[in-house]
Amino acid sequence: MQSGDQEWSCNLLDISLKGMLVEPPENLDIDLNNPCGMALFLGEDISIHARVTITHTSDGNWGLKWLQIDANSLQHLRRLIELNASNPAMLIRELSELS
């Protein structure tokens, strides 16, 4: 993740078509109200890039909401969720909520 001139790594806890739950590093001093850039690397040549906002903090974790995500990243995100979904109906419901 990146905000201003700061850049850091987070542990990804959960991901959906609406956003992510991450565990940020301890003692990170940033303005939680400012949008951040993020990159999620899925392989050598596949990554998801987006602008996110921190919508909530709980137990040291951040809930992030997608603000901007390009078409290629959205396609990779959808495929990632599709491959990991235990219930395809949930994916269809999430997709319908996005439109």
What does this protein look like?
The chain is of the alpha+beta class and 99 residues long. The protein has 2 helices and 7 strands, in the order βββββββαα. The strands form 2 sheets. Strands 3-4-7-6-5 form a 5-stranded antiparallel sheet. A two-stranded antiparallel ribbon has the order 1-2. A hairpin with a 3-residue loop joins strand 3 and strand 4. The chain is globular, with a radius of gyration of 14 Å.
State the end-to-end CA separation: 27 Å
Uncertain parts: none
Q: Helix and strand succession?
A: EEEEEEEHH
Q: How much of the sequence is in beta strands?
A: 35-45%
- Biggest sheet record: 5 strands, antiparallel
* Total discrete domains: 1
Structural key phrases:
single chain, 99 residues, Thrombin, subunit H, alpha+beta, two-stranded antiparallel ribbon
In short:
This protein is 25% helix and 41% strand.
Provide the fold topology.
Layout: E1 2-3, E2 6-7, E3 11-15, E4 19-23, E5 36-41, E6 47-58, E7 61-69, H1 71-84, H2 88-98
Antiparallel strand pairs: 1-2, 3-4, 4-7, 5-6, 6-7
